[in-house]
Amino acid sequence: MSTKKANTITLSDLFGVDTKKNNFLQSQRMFISSADAWGALIKDLVLALGIERAKHFLLRYGYQCGKHEAMMLKNMFNWENTKEWIMGGVTMHGLSGRSTSVPIKANINPETKEFDVEGFWHNSYEAKQYLQHFPVHSEPVCYFLEGYASGYCSTSLGKKVVFKEVECIGKGDPHCHFVGKTLDLWGDEISPEEVDYAREDIGDELDRAYKRIERQSEILKRGNLISNQLTQIVLQGKGLDSIAQTLGRSLGYGIVISNKHFETITEYGQAVDYSLKDMVENQHIFNASDRKKINEMITNRITIQLNSLEEHGLLHYPLITPIIVQNDVYGYISIIKKSKEIEELESSLIERAANICALHILNEKTAIDTEQRMKGELLDEIILQNKLDSNIMKKLTFLGYNLNKPHYLFIFRLQNQDYQQTESLDAEKDFITNILRKYTAIAKENMLVSNSFEQIQALISEEFLSSHNWNPKKFGDIVLKEVKKKFPSSQLLIGISNICTQITEINEGYKQAKKALEITQFNNQKQQVILFSSIGHISILLDARNPKELENYADQILGAIYAYDVEKSAELLKTLYFYLNNECNLHKTARCMNFSIGGMRYRLASLKERFNIDMMNSNTRREVQMALDIYLAFGKLTSIHLD
């Protein structure tokens, strides 16, 4: 019998009829099938088993087909050499209609068992059939061709060969591109277990798929039961404690629910030594992989499991997922596991539990927002009305407020903001409101806060301030400092009324705080706390005149002296201030300013000669006193250091 080369095999060789051996196809137990029938099989396998299970099914089936055909062709032809037998698989691809295999590299040495090839599968029936039923996949889909080539070449070479498709039209590539190498050449890229195609038969795979479906059905039933229990908790108005308890009992693990600052809100079960806050703040205790996971959880809001705590004596592997409410992270829920293995039920339930927690938080947030809005509207009514009707008094009683004890009216106004940046402005206003709530919650104090008129109004009781040994100015400075720390570019002004000893005075207190703000705004102060009491009798004039008119009046009398002081550092305004404060007593003023009597007389004479300010004239003294008070209220005397 003559020797055979791979590229000389024809269909006649394969389909010849021998009367003794009967038809070739029947004698080899082979049959012809259409590509569309194969496509229907692939579709059913993917839908029934899932893409991953179907992949392994087709890989193993292809491997067995390749192995069978290699042995069949070995016995059928007298091959010129082993390499030709190996290359016979390439020819079989084309003759069978599976694809046209075109090697671009073929480093094959049967003697040394060396095998390193690369090439293209053109017109792959498998990829085309996949695309007829499914969209483009994320990885190559020529599973049968991979398995067939691996089985055929492993059998003919006598050493394990693995083919991998690196490009595929089934995942949107321009062609199907394969690489085939012995397992040792693949190295760490492929593990032996990953390509143990002969380990299980197809029956085992189908049996496992059936058991998996049964198990998933049980998981689904149990998951639905627990989900319904969690939903009932929210519907019954129960809180996060009940959610943690129900989830922990169902799974048999410790549960920890933390706020957005990673601080524990509630916990259940074996979670005593678990602190998400400590782990986030001390990420150096983790390996690089877990540090990356923590940052991804915070940044990308994904579920993670930490695995390196055992290195530090902590025998748990927390599964953590964010609690997201209206696209903002409000906290985290952790399952404290004793195993690294993640059950399907656990990952789905923790995300379901996070959604239930989010629903509970949203309900609570809505209730709080509604209550605060009602309180804010109530405060608006109080500050805008001179006389309060009985309905307002009833509402205050129901809400537990006693406004007939001393209060201060604070106004917090954000000045010169770019109102196009509404998100930033709202965030700053929310921050101020939360500061007020924080301090009053600590003191268990009820507080009325209103966010309206582009500003925040708050009634702060004298009792609250004295419990902290604060005066109104001190508390205003504390709020100002916290806001500045959080928002460095903030331009917050705070106006504070005189003390309102009963509810009927609050309307007047609101007007007082507004007048205090008028002074600061007119003077272009960027950040300041000003009390109405510091304005003095100038406030009376503000009812009749606007601030600009008052400043113009003061400038007509003292403007030239003010400019002279700024230029020469002469302290003439300071001299006038202390002279009037000391009831025009020359000796007292001289001692106060560390001047000689002669020096004081010279200054007064200079004021009369240079600026026509005759302090011996009673009308002049009244005008100068008024002008100094206006300058003082407007902050123009701060530069001359009166203290």
Indicate the structural class. alpha+beta
Work out the helicity level.
40-55%
Low-confidence stretches: none
Report the sheet with the most strands, covering strand number, pairing sense and barrel closure.
5 strands, antiparallel
Gyration radius, in Å: 43 Å
Q: Please provide the count of β strands.
A: 16
Shape estimate: elongated
Distance between the first and last residues' Cα: 122 Å
Strand content: 5-15%
- The whole-number mean of residue pLDDT values reads 80
For the largest beta sheet, what order do the strands appear in spatially? 8-7-11-10-9
- Number of DSSP helical runs: 24
Describe what you observe in this structure.
It contains 24 helices and 16 strands. With 643 residues, the chain is of the alpha+beta class. The strands form four sheets. A five-stranded antiparallel sheet has the order 8-7-11-10-9, with helices on both faces. The N and C termini lie far apart (122 Å). The model has no long low-confidence stretch (mean pLDDT 80).
Summarize the structure.
The chain is of the alpha+beta class. The protein is built from 24 helices and 16 strands. Helix 3 packs across helix 6 and helix 22 packs across helix 23.
Characteristics:
5-stranded antiparallel β-sheet; 16 strands; 5-stranded mixed β-sheet
